[in-house]
Amino acid sequence: MVIKIILLLAFFTLMVVVGVLCRRSATDINGFVLGGRAVGPWLTAFAYGTSYFSAVIFVGYAGQFGWKFGMASTWIGLGNAFIGSLLAWVILGRRTRLMTQHLRTATMPEFFEKRFQSKPLKITAAIIVFIFLIPYTASLYNGLSRLFSMAFSIDYSVCIIAMAALTAVYVIIGGYMATAVNDFIQGIIMLVGIVAVIAAVLNQHGGLMGSVAGLAAVTDPALEYGSVPGIFTSFFGPDPFNLFAVVILTSLGTWGLPQMVQKFYAIKSEKAIGKGTIISTLFAIIVAGGCYFLGGFGRLFDVDIAAGGYDAIIPAMLEKLPDLLIAVVVILVLSASMSTLSSLVLTSSSVFTIDLIKPLSKKEINEKRQLVIMRVLIAVFVIISAAIALIQYKFKISSIAQLMGISWGALAGAFLAPFLYGLYWKRTTKIACGVSFGFGVIVMILNMVANSIFPAFIKSPVNCGAFVMLASLVIVPVVSLLTPKPEQKSVDEMFSCYDIETHASAKEYLGK
Question: What DSSP character marks residue 86?
Fold first, then answer.
């Protein structure tokens, strides 16, 4: 217990010190929200990765989908790496950086306003961000609480208050740069921790091959193909369709999440994009691939799903590890959760201030006052998310996976297609953007409140979220072609940022 407490105190102290040291970079809006658009590849890549993977992944998704799909759940982690990280950087990174700087936008709702010349789109997007980031934020605490209870026998409310307070302190003081630096530190902890945990957990059942052999002998008659020998070690597992839906939600979804896309706004240079792409992808392979690979062996452990739910699987796999390693696991998941929480509250506060309070205010709000409002809102959002987490836990409203499915489905279903087409296709219209907003939000809300009306294949929030993302990629171009073209001159001016001639060395460009 002494070792655990010392490691925790050292971790907490380091986070606050970083916040204090980074306070000079948070003196204006550009610095507080985007780090002055001068963040290097390592910090940006780790900020992207650590915002992506949290206790939701490690405790919620890895446990639930590892149990359902066995070793095939590793495909989810690989999808996160190659679709959610590699392709996201390649397809969105450079164009996002160029156009958002050209349009002078600091948030995703502000991008929609200036790209489609519509203030109502900005306000609508800001409201969607605020509403649907909350359930995702609340889910972060839930996963962490189970590990803290196992390691320290601490009351859940204490875990929430400590994590919320510490995150609020360093984000309020240091803004984006403090978040990015702490994300880098937390990312290193995650990389080392996941490798150590996988080795230790598998060692309990005779190492890798012993664990694979044990899992191959497991069957589950309750599943359609669950009695097939070796089904949980097969290539696509017992349920390929639902596995595909999870891959789509958790991988393609990042393309439309404001807290993820905003990382591209802050990239420093062309070289940073190239390096960041590689670093981010490797980070995701190790962390996400490792989490889901570990979760795939959950059936080897004595877990009462009926009593504790899927969220109890990972804690059950870890509870017999040595004390020192349990301390490492707690700090690993704490790092993952705090990095994501800091990104979410910074995104929420900046969106609420820049895209709602400022345009709706009758008086001019100067930059200094905007910074004060953002800092106050960070504290407010942390308190709200913590309160919801306590209520959710007390009344057992929903599992981690369901909370994340609702949040990601609504946000990415609404934003992914108009953002992607807005970067690449001049013909994209504001009406198509608005239709995408409405479709994503309405379908996910109906799935939550009137689930019985949905066909079986999209009843779960995860499958429904994947469906609205894919559907929006069809809806936006169809509606754009059926509605009046945007003004050609203004759109050409927006896309002119891609046509500026630049000079490059022969290593980067072969020449004519």
Answer: I
d(CA 35, CA 69): 40
Copy the structure tokens of residue 7.
Answer: 């490691």
Least confident of 121-135, 310-324, 385-399: 385-399
As beta bridge partners, residue 267 has 39
Whether 93 has a pLDDT exceeding 60, the answer reads: yes
Q: Which domains does the chain have, with CATH numbers?
A: 2-398 (1.20.1730.10)
In degrees, to the nearest 5, what angle opens at C-alpha 451 toward C-alphas 244 and 240? 15
The whole-number pLDDT of residue 124 equals 94
Percent of the chain with pLDDT over 70: 93
CA angle 190-386-31, nearest 5°?
A: 65
Q: What are the b/e assignments for 65-81, b being 16+ CB within 10 Å?
A: bbbbbbbbbbbbbbbbb
Residue 399 has pLDDT above 60, yes or no: no
Written as one string, the DSSP assignment of 45-59 is HHHHHHHH-SHIIII
Alpha carbon distance 333, 50 (integer Å) = 11
